[in-house]
Amino acid sequence: MLSPIGVGRIQKLSDELANQIAAGEVVERPASIVKELVENALDAHATRVVVDVEQGGSTLVRVTDDGDGMTADDALLALERHATSKIKTLDDLFRLGTFGFRGEALPSIASVARLLLRTRARGSGEGCEIEVEGGRAPVTRPAGGAVGTTIEVRDLFFNVPARRKFLKATATESAHVGDVLLGAALARPDVTFSLSRDKRVVREYLRVGSRAERARAATAGENLVHVLAERGPLRLEAMLAAPERARSGTTGLALLVNGRPVRDRVLARAVANSYGSVLEGGRYPVGVVWLDLPAELVDINVHPQKAEVRFTDGRGVFDAITRELHDALGRAFGLPEVGNPFARPRLDPPTFDGFAGAIAARQLVSSATLPPPTAQPPTMQSRADPPSTLLPEENLFTSARPSPNPDRTPSTTVGEATLRPLPFGAFGRSPGVQAIAEALPSATLFNPPGLYGTLRFVGQMRATFLVCEGEDGLYVLDQHAAAERVTFDRLRRSFASRSIATQRLLVPEIVELPPSEVAVLEEHSDEVTRMGVEVRAVADGAVAVHSVPAILTRKEPARVVRDLASELSRAGGRAFGGAVDLVLATMACHGSIRAGDTISPEEARALLAALDEVDFAGHCPHGRPVVMRLAWSELERRVGR
């Protein structure tokens, strides 16, 4: 009911009610309290942070640090809303170098719990203790103690029972607390963190000298590849696991922007897309990615809990992550070179153009080289690159690389299409092996063979596996997965250059499809044609197939088109570039040698050499491992030598 005329309807909220509202945004669960208090400790230059929780944090959260501490006056002021030492002017808000800055955390926590703050400033002979219960007036008294601050939060939501009942089980809330501490540990490897649950230490992260060391300690059991790269003002560091370790969802992937843990689906998708087709949609790698860029290019003041960020050039960041990680991971997840002191240049990753999706819009063209062999997980680092005009657009993070020699391999004109004799998959059934041999540059002192090229082919087992001898052990390759990887790589390059060879059908074949799939084919008709498939809708539920890729001439056109439509539909929300990879991976699978096919030693050696020329040589386009290695020392141990 409206108030009578003349009676004011707008009133200023009381401080108690305002704090309750702020607490609803800042304090979601015990983990929210741990996050705010740990970040305050880090802003106070702490070198050790100890977190104790009981009953998942619902009855007690205690955070102790050895930071700068506070005087009694500062401690009282810190319990007031919008009181902070982090910023003073509006300009400071756009150049934030601290975790906190709003001055809302402590008063918000104190309004929904029983808070006890004990602190002693560095250089002060006496500390103080302040007690606040449910937002009431604080009670202050002198107290002793070490330099630093201890904050106890008891009986969370004791005065807001409606919110308390929404807390989850103790194990769930404890897990969220652990995740928060892990994020802080990844952000600050120079700080020691300890977590106790119900008086029992469950996690401890000792200070280390680098982010990479902290990531390895935090993800024990994972074999992570270290990536360092720079593009424009953005610096990228990552520790990522192999594709087969990927998980459904982003639970295994930690993202940090300027040292701040964030939740960002776009960034997570950029990391996943850098793996190409070896990761299915919806699956994300395990590992950690740190992004560092000037503070004025990122806005962290967009989420009450500061868990999300916005970039001045979001698309540029997306492209930079995808390109740099793809460039490094493509080499890292083959196999590290063994006994090869020379760096070998690799072929360029494909350039996709004309797609609406961010990842497909501008892929990196790189002339980077492989690092020297090492016993540790390989470290990939991009170097400063001269400017170039290869990219159709420029952004803050554009740092294009010079194109390698375009005449590295000869080209052959077939009809109207120009094909480079790159490694192809139809070994032994067409001139494919000869094409592979011609495509590979001869090994010289300054262009030695890569790892796969140095293997000595021993024999084929069960018409499925290729057994090879290397300097460091026995290698067993899945012939179908290896050929599929090589074929996929060539198809991507041919697609990028609009040169996929096609075979026209004498009589168009009618294929019945669901109307939704017919619509998908029509929507992407130009790109589908670039894949070597020409289809035309003849009804709501049927298409006519006029041509198919030459590599798939032995497959039924109906099956080719159904697989194509299925993959395009399955891509869901992916950019069309991601859908292209799915389709080309399926085409590569159909067009490669399979288990049960007998191949000659010459064909096996050609396949091995071809693997050295592709990205992600250790995995097929669908993410299955290509090779298994058994070290000589392990073999000798197993036979008792």
If you had to describe this structure to a student in words, what would you say it looks like?
The chain has 641 residues and is of the alpha+beta class. The chain folds into 3 domains: 15-207, Heat Shock Protein 90, CATH 3.30.565.10; 213-381, Ribosomal Protein S5, domain 2; 433-641, Ribosomal Protein S8, Chain: A, domain 1 (2-Layer Sandwich), CATH 3.30.1370. 31% of the residues lie in helices and 22% in strands. It is built from 20 helices and 27 strands. The strands form 7 sheets. The protein has an 8-stranded mixed β-sheet with strand order 5-4-3-6-2-1-7-8. A 6-stranded mixed β-sheet has the order 13-12-15-10-9-18, sandwiched between helices. Helix 1 (15-26) crosses helix 5 (105-111) and helix 14 packs across helix 19. Residues 336-394, 399-447 and 572-576 have low confidence and may be disordered.
Give the helices and strands, then pairings.
Blueprint: H1 15-26, H2 30-43, E1 48-54, E2 60-65, H3 72-78, H4 90-93, H5 105-111, E3 114-120, E4 127-133, E5 139-143, E6 148-154, H6 161-164, H7 170-187, E7 192-197, E8 200-205, H8 211-218, E9 225-231, E10 234-240, E11 247-248, E12 253-257, E13 260-262, H9 265-273, E14 283-284, E15 287-292, E16 298-299, E17 310-311, H10 314-332, H11 358-361, E18 379-381, E19 412-414, E20 417-419, H12 432-439, H13 451-454, E21 456-461, E22 465-469, E23 473-478, H14 479-496, E24 502-512, H15 515-523, H16 525-530, E25 534-539, E26 542-549, H17 557-570, H18 576-591, H19 601-611, E27 627-631, H20 632-638
Parallel strand pairs: 1-7, 9-18, 12-15
Antiparallel strand pairs: 1-2, 2-6, 3-4, 3-6, 4-5, 7-8, 9-10, 10-15, 11-14, 12-13, 16-17, 19-20, 21-22, 22-23, 23-27, 24-26, 25-26
Helix pairs in contact: 1-5, 2-7, 7-8, 9-10, 14-18, 14-19, 15-17, 17-18
